[in-house]
Write a structure and sequence with these properties.
With about 190 residues, the protein is an alpha+beta fold. It is built from three helices and five strands, in the order ααβββββα. The chain has helices at about 1-15, 20-75, 180-185; strands spanning about 100-105, 115-120, 125-130, 150-155, 170-180. The N and C termini lie far apart (about 75 Å). The model has no long low-confidence stretch (mean pLDDT about 85).
Length: about 190
Amino acid sequence: LTQSVRSARPNARRRNAAGFTLLELIVVIAIVGVLLAVAANRLLPFIDEAERVAVLRVEGQLRSSLMMEAAQRIVRGRSASLSDLEGSNPVKFLLEPPKNYIGEVKNGDIGQAPERHWYFERDGQRLVYRLGQPFGLPVRDESLQDPAFVVRVAYADANGNGVFEAARDELYGVRLQRVAGADWLSGAIRQ
């Protein structure tokens, strides 16, 4: 009888040694959960930074396409038509618009523009990128402005009439001017 009791005990130990107890499993799951929370908290701000860099990349593409359009008009002898670029939608000069560009919008419909999308305000003649809530923990500051851009013709107004005249005025170029959201674009303000 004592021999059978002794032989039963090693089997019981082997059975327990082969797996995890419920307590051990809960502890491991809790540790993994804490590590995931810390990692997510550290990585989410990088998503916000990637959004800012993507907007800056589109801004650079818009500037390049505007310069190409202006150069083509000058080479073709149509420099007088450069004034037509003032207040125009710069996205139309891109070969392909950004995937998150929703098109031209009237001022009354601006509130319906989805977050993290580009749109062109027809009435305001400006291209706008609508910011969204940050992916990180802090809530977006409501005073933070959506980045907005306008197309301007830069020239020396010889006669002071405020209108570009190719025959009289000295052309400096065409530029995409930031009119809002410069703090967010520079990275000075973190969402």
